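Predict the 3D structure for this chain.
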Amino acid sequence: MGFFDPLGLWSVFLVHGKILLQDVWRSGTQWDEKINDAAFERWRKWTNLFQNIREIRIPRCYFENATNQHYKNLQLHIFVDASEAAYSAAAYFRITKPDGLVDCSLVVAKTKVAPLKPLSIPRLELQAAVLGVRLMQFVEESHTVKVQQRFLWSDSATVLAWLRSDHRRYKQFVACRVGELLTASDVREWHWVPSKHNPADLATKLGKGSCEDVSRVWFNGPGFLKDPESEWPRQRTITVSTEEELRPCHAHCKMFIPKMVFDLERFSRLSRLIRSAAYVHRWIANRRRRTKGEAVFVGHLISEELLEGQRMLIRLAQWQVFTNEMVLLTRNHQSPAAQQIQLEKSSELYKLTPMLDEFGILRMDGRITAAPNVNESVKFPIILPRKYRLTYLLLDDYHRRFRHCNMETVVNEVRQHFHIPQLRVAVKQVAKSCQWCRTYKTEPCIPRMAPLPAARVTSFQRPFTNTGLDLFGPLLVKIGRSNTKRWIAVFTCLTIRAVHVEVVHSLSTRSCVEAIRRFVVRRGSPATIYSDNGTNFRGASRLLQEQIEQLATTFTSSSTKWIFIPPGTPHMGGAWERMVRSIKTAMDDAYSIHGKLNDETLVTLVVEAEGIVNSRPLTYLPISSEESEALTPNHFLLGSSSGVRQQAEADDSVAVLQASFHQIQQHLDTFWRRWLREYLPTLNKRTKWFGDVKPVAAGDLVVIVDESTRNRWERGRILEVIRGSDGRIRQAIVQTARGLIRRSVGKLAVLEVDGEGKTESDDQCYAGEDVGTGNTASDATVGAHRFDIRRQSYKVEREKENRKEMED
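Done. Predicted structure below.
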């Protein structure tokens, strides 16, 4: 607002500020908000041009020492140009002095920013031409000197082509403006100029208006005006396409194109849609019969009406999607040979050789027409679009009719009557969106395998510092003439993978406590004990903890922490579960040979199995190495694999040194270094569960996987999630009908439900459908005992619907 420039002499600079203000306003920046960095950079680039304005001087007169004689051959030159941001026009006077010298001077200039509504560059160039013509009229009306010749210059070949053609052929935007140009000027006054010689181009591109260009070109005109007219630029012969602005030619077709009269989104079942279409067809047929005086149809729908309703829906769908093809095929219905010729190659039906049957339905003319004993619907299947609601309802009907079974079964059955592009993809999408399948075929998503806990990878500590506890059995032992059950308690060192085995006489809390007491006395009090949620552990956990603390007070100075893994997650206790299997394997042969054992023999057997397992190699046996044997758990327990230490032949001082405490510590340190070097790297690689999955969240509806109850899985809602050491969710607290339970996410299958948080009603399934989970982990059948009740409820609802239809 600080510039007073009514003649637009400084518009070459000011127009860029207008463009910047328009862009900031278009971006939605408020008056009290900071503009973005890009706009600020443009602002600095624009304001830097003002430093050169002080150096520019504009003379008061157009030409110095000019007389009236000089203006007798006065010429007016108008230059116009446009860009995506603005368009401009500049007017120049050109005189020829008596000495033959030519002089030019800027008279007036005008710039405008491009409108907010996007326009093409040719249209903006046309707007600049209109601005130039109006500027020319203003100059002629404002001066007393008479202009002898007028020249209008533009670098747009498209605008010049519009001026030289019949403007009535073009759209209203172009036609009106070309008409204004031809009214105020003559087409012979328009000339072409290259963009590099167009001074109006300086006002449409930021950065081109430097001080030197403004002084030399903007105020004095382009250099070619100083040359004779014979050397001025001439337009080359360039063919310019102007067809995009031609008026459209409307062809009126009298053919009636049917429209879809049904709102397909309101229907969730194909059967309901077909029945609705059949009733519409009956109503239309009855109206025609009444006009002819014939009897009308009432009562239940018959099979012919249902079939005609299905044909009506297929025709309407084909007319809506394949309109152009249907028009061409309908016109040439009597000439099947001409149908394919008239279809464009860009049509998606071009390769299907479509044809119309006697009912006006679009079918594919295939190559198996000569096959005998084949149904006509297989030779000429009905063409349906893949991404259409009717096709979705059709595939959903087949999917439910065949009891949500294998996808290939549905594909084979659909191909007997219909041709649908990418059929397998469409069937897979239908099965994926089926609520029944999402509910009863859901599977748990197990997160990436967690890093090992510190109890598994901590070195240089006493064996059985971190222990895993489990029981297996029962085993029958012979006491007198009776057989008694015995169980085996397996204590596993989580670090060196050593085992300690105790015989347990029962699953009571007392027997478990006694076994743990014997373990603590012989192996020392563990820092942590890991176990599952067995009834003998979970039910008496407080008592066991008190007993362990008493033993710890007696034998050690530290307390023991008891950690329970989530229920139903044996993979979280795999460290001791694998040792249970190893103990069983070591005992199987001896137990099968000797038959039923007594208590003494059983104790001997389990201790021998313990020794066998503890002497197993943790790493590969070295072939050519400094180490004589592979590292085993017995190296940490007994000092060697077999427990027998070889005495080297040496003097008494060497023997004493080998037997000393320092020598024993040296051996243990050697074993731990080998454990770090040979065994620990083997635990680094993940064996399964490599990828990340979508984590469960609070509020998700889940099915709790339980292999013990194969016919019924419990449902619940997640109340709280528990994250592991790596930040991933691995456990959750679930609210069920019987209270709160803690489960691993590997046992929780998330139910994908609709927006209201409810699963689809089970009574919408077909009568006689088989109910199963489809879970590959357990392959359990879900809710089978409840299906008879659902089937009876479904029959009652169907009878109600039939009675209502009869009343209607």
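Residues 755-796 have pLDDT under 50 and may be disordered.
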